[in-house]
């Protein structure tokens, strides 16, 4: 009965989204209809929420009469993974997508009172149209509540690799980021329909972009961390097409964040900001297509039948195609906005946008080229890390090299020499740190040392921005303290985000260039040297888990004769699906980690029975995950700044069609 109620609510949500689209579209100048459209948006969100709750109930109670549950769950799974199974399949993930989409639509109605009434109504209408497309796809092509005629006694369970706490949280956070850009998309289409881009529009683009980008940052970081410790490959990023699918909207979102500031503060770049607003959600939809169409082979892709993939491609084509066609029609009538000198904060942000856009196009080319090549001539090609290292990395290094200059330049006309004078200490410290690494750590790795210098440059540059804002060393200490306590949260958020990027660069350069690894068959009591650590294989035993059997090794990690930790890597077998996985053991020491995996049984060169052990010493790897989290924290702090969300001035339109 609850499953049928969920199905009914899903159809109801579709009907309410149709009502939201029509009522809000007709209510641009009719407050009564606009209010009804807002009510329909709230109703669509509540109905979708009930559907999602019914789906979770079916998974928790192991109702194998539901095809989705039978294919992706098992009664012996821990409760957390039965709940997570609700969004671990194609059908369930689409319900989560629709829940996020209708939720953001309802939030526009709840919190959009500062928007002009016509802009709010049109935004809700566009958001409703998006809801109609995706809910119709879910109802008619990906029904999560479909029943089975022959009910199995047990389900086939969820992929064991996905039975992980990080993967339980990763999809919801990723979807909040993906779908959060839908509001920015709707705001852009609504502004194009109305022919007006003003301060209210630009001010509303920023917080929605910031919220979506922050969620996406945390979601990508969790996914990277999961791949790092769950796949057992010793790495944190593989340029997998599914990874790229989430990275592209993140890059465009970062560009949009900076461009929207220029449009709000100076009235410049309105057309470009509109273009990025449309592109951000278009890349999100492209990611949904790539992951769910079956064109990609990946451990975290939903390999479904091509028919549903073509339907998603059709939604992408209709939605993005219509929006960009409208943009092409309206763009010539948009005024260019405020003028600025070649050396100014606006110019620095334009350069930032060029870099991020070029980086996105590089990732797009590397992701789609193998698919296009295979479709054209049937040849299978692979585009991996070498391509991205040669194309993406230099572009991003250029952007990061100039990033600290932006906040030091004035609006409209800046002073390049003055900005350099304010950053000379940061530059000296960064170059000194790079030279020190070159001299002491590894004189043969000049490029890695240069990367470290860039990372320190970003960190020290962010600190210099705070120093400049509070006029430290140039004003009395009491005055500097007063300025520090009164610094806007938006300024703190920006500096933290830039600092987090620097920490990530430091971790990535150090871990990639100075990693040490070995793979060796070890018998009990055997020892192997790993950098400054010694690993001793103590014993191996069989462990009985809640829904798996595992071989577990006990490996003593010591340094200079003193025990550091006891690593317990596992090799797990899941009877329900007949799959075998590795469970990594990680010993964290400061910013470093010793990473150990247990492989299959083998015979040592001496003829003794043993196990294949792979171990890695990953220096500074913690910064790879702490840096992005600091970036997301910076976004959250900026979003909490009241001036980011309220007090929008009612200015004349900057551009009128």
3D architecture notes:
With 657 residues, the protein is an alpha+beta fold. It is built from 19 helices and 12 strands. The protein is globular. Helix 6 packs antiparallel against helix 11 (306-330) and helix 9 packs antiparallel against helix 12 (345-377). The strands form 3 sheets. Strands 3, 4, 5, 6, 7 and 8 form a 6-stranded antiparallel beta sheet that branches. Strand 10 (592-603) and strand 11 form a beta hairpin. The two termini are 53 Å apart.
Question: Which SSEs are present, and which pair or pack?
Answer:
Elements: H1 2-26, H2 31-60, H3 67-72, H4 79-84, H5 90-111, H6 117-141, H7 165-194, E1 196-197, H8 199-230, H9 241-266, H10 270-292, H11 306-330, H12 345-377, H13 385-402, H14 416-440, H15 446-470, H16 477-485, H17 489-514, E2 516-522, E3 527-530, E4 533-544, E5 549-559, E6 562-567, E7 570-574, E8 579-583, E9 585-589, E10 592-603, E11 609-618, H18 622-639, H19 642-645, E12 655-656
Antiparallel strand pairs: 1-12, 2-11, 3-4, 4-5, 5-6, 5-7, 7-8, 9-10, 10-11
**Broad structural category:** alpha+beta
Strand content: 5-15%
Q: Sheet with the most strands?
A: 6 strands, antiparallel
Any idea what the radius of gyration is? Answer: 27 Å
Query: How widely separated are the two ends?
Result: 53 Å
List segments where confidence is low: pLDDT < 50 over at least 5 consecutive residues: 646-657
Any idea what the shape is? globular
Oligomeric organization of the protein chains: single chain
Strand tally, please?
A: 12
On the 0-100 scale, what is the average pLDDT? 89
> What's the total helix number?
19
Helix content: 55-70%
């Amino acid at each position: 009965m609850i499953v049928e109620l969920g199905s009914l609510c899903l159809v109801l949500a579709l009907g309410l989204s149709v009502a939201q689209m029509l009522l809000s579209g007709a209510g641009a100048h009719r407050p009564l209809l606009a209010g009804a459209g807002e009510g329909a948006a709230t109703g669509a969100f509540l109905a979708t929420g009930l559907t999602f709750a019914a789906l979770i109930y079916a998974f928790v109670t192991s109702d194998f009469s539901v095809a989705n549950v039978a294919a992706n769950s098992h009664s012996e799974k821990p409760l957390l993974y039965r709940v997570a199974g609700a969004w671990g399949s194609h059908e369930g993930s689409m319900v989560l997508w629709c829940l996020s989409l209708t939720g953001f639509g309802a939030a526009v109605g709840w919190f959009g009172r500062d928007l002009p009434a016509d802009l709010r109504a049109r935004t809700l209408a566009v958001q409703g149209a998006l809801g109609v497309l995706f809910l119709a796809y879910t109802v008619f092509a990906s029904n999560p509540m479909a029943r089975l005629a022959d009910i199995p006694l047990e389900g086939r369970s969820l992929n064991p690799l996905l039975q992980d706490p990080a993967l339980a949280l990763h999809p919801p956070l990723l979807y909040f980021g993906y779908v959060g850009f839908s509001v920015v998309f709707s705001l852009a289409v609504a502004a194009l329909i109305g022919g007006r881009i003003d301060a209210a529009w630009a001010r509303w683009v920023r917080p929605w972009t910031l919220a979506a980008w922050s969620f996406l940052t945390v979601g990508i970081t969790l996914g990277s961390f999961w791949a790092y410790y769950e796949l057992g490959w010793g790495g944190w990023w593989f340029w997998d097409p599914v990874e790229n699918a989430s990275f592209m909207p993140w890059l465009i979102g970062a560009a949009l964040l900076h461009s929207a500031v220029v449009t709000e503060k100076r009235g410049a770049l309105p057309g470009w900001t509109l273009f990025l607003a449309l592109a951000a959600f278009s890349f999100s939809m492209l990611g949904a297509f790539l992951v769910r169409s079956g064109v990609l082979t990946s451990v975290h892709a939903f390999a479904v039948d091509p028919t549903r993939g073509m339907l998603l491609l059709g939604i992408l084509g209709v939605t993005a195609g219509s929006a960009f066609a409208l943009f092409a029609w309206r763009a010539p009538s948009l005024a260019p906005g405020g003028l600025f000198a070649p050396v100014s904060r606006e110019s620095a942000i334009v350069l930032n946008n060029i870099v991020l856009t070029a980086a996105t196009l590089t990732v797009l080319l590397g992701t789609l080229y193998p698919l296009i090549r295979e479709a054209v001539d049937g040849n299978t090609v692979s585009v991996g890390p070498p391509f991205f290292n040669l194309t993406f990395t230099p572009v991003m290094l250029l952007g990061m090299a100039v990033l600290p200059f932006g906040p030091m330049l004035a609006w409209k006309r800046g002073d390049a020499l003055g900005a350099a004078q304010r950053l000379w200490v940061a530059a000296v410290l960064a170059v000194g740190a790079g030279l020190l690494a070159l001299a002491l750590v590894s004189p043969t790795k000049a490029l890695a040392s240069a990367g470290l210098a860039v990372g320190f440059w970003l960190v020290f540059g962010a600190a210099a921005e705070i120093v400049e804002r509070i006029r430290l060393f140039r004003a009395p200490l009491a005055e500097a303290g007063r300025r520090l306590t009164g610094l806007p949260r938006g300024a703190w958020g920006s500096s933290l985000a830039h600092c987090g990027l620097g920490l990530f660069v430091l971790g990535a350069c150090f871990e990639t260039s100075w990693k040490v690894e070995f793979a060796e068959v070890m018998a009990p009591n055997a020892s192997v040297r790993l950098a400054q650590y010694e690993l001793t294989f103590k014993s191996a035993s069989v462990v009985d888990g809640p829904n798996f059997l595992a071989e577990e090794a006990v490996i003593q990690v010591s340094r200079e004769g003193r025990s550091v930790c006891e690593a317990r890597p596992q090799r797990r077998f899941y009877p329900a699906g007949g799959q075998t996985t590795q469970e990594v053991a990680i010993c964290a020491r400061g910013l470093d980690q010793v990473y150990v995996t247990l492989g299959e049984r083998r015979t040592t060169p001496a003829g003794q029975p043993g196990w294949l052990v792979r171990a890695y010493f990953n220096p500074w790897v913690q910064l790879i995950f702490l840096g992005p989290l600091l970036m997301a924290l910076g976004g959250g702090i900026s979003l909490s700044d009241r001036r980011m969300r309220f007090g929008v001035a009612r200015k004349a339109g900057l551009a009128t069609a």
